[in-house]
UniProtKB/TrEMBL annotation:
<dbReference type="InterPro" id="IPR002347">
    <property type="entry name" value="SDR_fam"/>
</dbReference>
<dbReference type="InterPro" id="IPR020904">
    <property type="entry name" value="Sc_DH/Rdtase_CS"/>
</dbReference>
<keyword id="KW-0560">Oxidoreductase</keyword>
<dbReference type="GO" id="GO:0008709">
    <property type="term" value="F:cholate 7-alpha-dehydrogenase (NAD+) activity"/>
</dbReference>
<dbReference type="Pfam" id="PF13561">
    <property type="entry name" value="adh_short_C2"/>
</dbReference>
<dbReference type="InterPro" id="IPR052178">
    <property type="entry name" value="Sec_Metab_Biosynth_SDR"/>
</dbReference>
<dbReference type="GO" id="GO:0005829">
    <property type="term" value="C:cytosol"/>
</dbReference>
<protein>
    <submittedName>
        <fullName>SDR family oxidoreductase</fullName>
    </submittedName>
</protein>
<keyword id="KW-0521">NADP</keyword>
<dbReference type="InterPro" id="IPR036291">
    <property type="entry name" value="NAD(P)-bd_dom_sf"/>
</dbReference>
<comment type="similarity">
    <text>Belongs to the short-chain dehydrogenases/reductases (SDR) family.</text>
</comment>
Length: 269
């Protein structure tokens, strides 16, 4: 048994794929990995947004980052993303299934199209992108340094929230259970599957839900933080730190679990 504790939390040199990586939590994760020496591949539907984020992060942190725009809510987009990654990379060390959507509507008015869109992106997209990228994950996987899949769920999948809506909270509960299934199924081939359930972070999605109109700068995030047991909203370091723990040697004996990153909301509810 090795007693070497150097580089315990290192992700340097790893190839990391992040869906929904052009803004919000996806961009926070991309920044954290890039700043710590990983190669980062981001994806989202809008090509312009992807390229703007790539330039912004590269200017700030340097390193190697590029984008492959794609829609992981559709099988054609999932296949396109997987094919394009396979053309450029010989392995994937970390896949972060972060892309997600929400739909706000009353029970009486909730449309089938909204339900299907949320489930397609938030649940189906995770399963099938992981399936398509499994060959590249297997090429990275070893007993000493497993490949990692991190599914971004939400605390709305752990408790009921008035902002969640029927489809979003249900989809995130499905992500948590899917993570358990995937973790059990793939640990034996040295692919560890875990989840993170974020609480409130200063993102476009939360901004729209609390009435800030999608703005993330110049709005009163402290008013949201005041409702949190920790007295604040999350920071990029909070979410990136947990993801990098799960991606590093420090997290190499964990699989099938979803960890809240929420300042204590779930444990207090």
């Amino acid at each position: 048994m090795s007693n070497d504790f150097s580089n315990l939390f290192s992700v340097k040199g790893k190839t990391v794929v992040i869906t929904g990586g052009s803004r919000g939590i996806g961009e926070m994760l991309a920044a954290g990995y890039l700043a710590n020496g990983a190669k980062v591949i981001i994806s989202s539907r809008k090509a312009d947004a992807c390229e703007e984020t790539v330039k912004r992060l590269k200017d700030q942190y340097g390193g190697e980052i590029y984008a492959i725009p794609s829609d992981v809510g559709q099988m054609v987009g999932i296949q396109h993303l997987a094919d394009e990654i396979a053309k450029r990379e010989d392995k994937v060390d970390v896949l972060i299934n972060n892309a997600g959507v929400a739909w706000g509507a009353k029970f009486e008015d909730f449309p089938e199209s909204g339900w299907d869109k949320v489930m397609d992106v938030n649940v189906k997209g995770i399963f099938f992108l992981t399936q398509k990228l499994a060959p590249l994950l297997r090429k990275s996987a070893s007993a000493e340094d497993p490949a990692r899949v991190i599914n971004i769920a939400s605390i709305d999948g752990m408790h009921t929230s008035p902002m969640s809506g029927y489809a979003y909270g249900t989809s995130k509960a499905a992500v948590i259970h899917l993570t358990r299934f995937m973790g059990a199924a793939h640990a034996g081939e040295h692919i560890l599957v875990n989840g993170i359930a974020p609480g409130p972070f200063p993102t476009w999605m939360l901004s729209t839900g609390v009435g800030y109109g999608g703005e993330t700068e110049g709005v009163d995030w402290q008013a949201i933080g005041d409702r949190n047991p920790s007295g604040r909203v999350g920071t990029p370091q909070d979410i990136a730190g947990l993801a990098m723990f799960l991606s590093s040697r420090a997290g190499a004996y964990i699989s099938g679990h979803t960890i809240p990153c929420d300042g204590g909301i779930v444990s207090s509810s």
